[in-house]
Amino acid sequence: MDYPKDIMSEILYDEKQIIARAQEIAKQINKDYENKALTLVCTLKGAVFFFTELMKYVTIDCRIEFIKASSYIGNTTMTIGNVKISKFMNFEIANRDILIVEDIVDTGLTCKELFAYFNTNKCSSVNVCTLLDKKKRRQTNIEPKYVGFEIDDKFVIGYGLDYNESYRNLPCVGVINPKYIK
Ligand code: PRP
Fold this sequence. Notes:
By secondary structure, this protein is an alpha/beta fold. The chain has helices spanning 15-32, 48-57, 109-120; strands at residues 8-13, 38-44, 62-70, 84-87, 97-105, 125-133, 146-150, 156-157, 173-176. Helix 3 (109-120) links the parallel strand 5 and strand 6.
């Protein structure tokens, strides 16, 4: 069954715009992390699309790793301040420059937990690169180093972002049509 044609009430960024932005950010990363021990960390599941796009244009030596961070529970559009982090692989953190790649920074609670996690494991630096920044909703002092686009406080889906685990595979970012929110 295909998704309804009106699943998005508004398209915010299409694939072309996202790829162009990923290229610009990657260029900056190449400069900022030259001669550093860069590890790009993809926070599953939402960041996977942006992550793969971004890393294609990161041309400096780097490692990639994956971590699962989860805050939204069930079919709710509210953030629950209860972040679960599960590490998939035992990867080296000490003396590495960690760049967490996110699809969205909202309250910032997920990033705050991730910062605490990486810092206790003595990384050289820890920063965030996010496709979307919902700055107005921030409850922490987290400031992503790289931001694709700043967005308003609307529930967005597509390009990795879900509503109740669906719509991640839509090739653009848009606002979910409220009539599909249960
Ligand atoms: C989303 C997103 C971020 C986090 C942002 O993940 O991928 O990790 O929420 O919200 P915050 O700034 O309020 O913490 P989610 O928990 O929905 O998991 P998912 O990536 O598997 O969809």
